[in-house]
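Q: Here's a chain of 144 amino acids. Please give me its 3D structure as tokens.
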Amino acid sequence: MIMSENHINILLTEEVLSLPNCQAFVEEPMVGGIVHFVGTVRNQTKGKTVERLDFEAYKPMAISEMTKIAQQALEKFGVTKIAMHHRIGVLEIGEIPVIIAISSPHRMAAFEACQYCIDTLKETVPIWKKEIFEDGEVWVSATP
């Protein structure tokens, strides 16, 4: 599922995410800075070895919430464009579940908007993560 406006590009997919695609969307001649956040699947959490992650989402609501977050960030921080892509399904160690790219005339607004987007996404978007270990699995709460 993809949603795109002039200044917002939202993607929720089972396909591999592309940082170059996010970068290309947010590029503009008038911007002075582009900030990326790329989340990766790590192999350790709370002292346990992670084998893989499984992401599930309530897709219509997730797309709606991601769009709302991006719209809020555009207004609050005065940034130019936002790409927010999230992957669902089974991801192996080192794979990318989330990319956020933000462009702005000034770097500080892009940094602040990027942090706002990832923090708010983790708190409010109905995307759930299951950590799979050698000896079992656990659903992780939406907030860190």
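Q: Can you summarize the key feature?
A: Strands lie at 2-4, 8-13, 33-39, 44-45, 48-57, 81-87, 89-92, 98-104, 127-133, 136-140.
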